[in-house]
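ESCALATION

Customer reports they have been waiting on this structure for their group meeting. Please prioritize. Original submission:
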Amino acid sequence: MPKIFRKREMEFEKRKAPISAFEWHQGPQMGDIVKSKYLQFRVRSLDPGKFSFPYHSHRACEELFVIFSGEATLRSPEGFQKVAEGDIIFFEEGPSGAHQIYNHGDEPCVYLDIRTTFGIDVCDYPDSGKINVLPFWEIFENSSKADYYKGEEDPAGKWPKEILRTRPAGPPK
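Update from on-call: job pushed to the front of the queue and completed.
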């Protein structure tokens, strides 16, 4: 059944952030309201002089902004360019889809933020060298990457001896 969301009827809440440059206003998470399986979407309002999220890309989702009113500057791997009312901006998965917007104007920049979701996503933040595992918001620094087998040198040591074969597991001889 269709669901109509009317901007004039939405209640916007301020999204607080430890760094005030990243504070903005947002409407409800509409994808949750309609129990969308693959889309998350909400209207955001970015005040003059504010940034959207830190510069980032998604490994497992596509994102689309539809600018309703105002203007902003888009940062992407292609550089900086102005966007304004009526513009639709698509961000593909991966580093080539990295993005951030900054409201350089005098009025709020109001836009619809739509993204696909298939459960787990990982955001990369090139400026700070972090990754974020969504939807859990588990944030790690890239410098802490480890080899897949690090700490796995003794797999048999975690198993009851009566289950294991008499010879140690390993590559064939």
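Sent to customer with the following note: The mean pLDDT is 94.
Escalation resolved.
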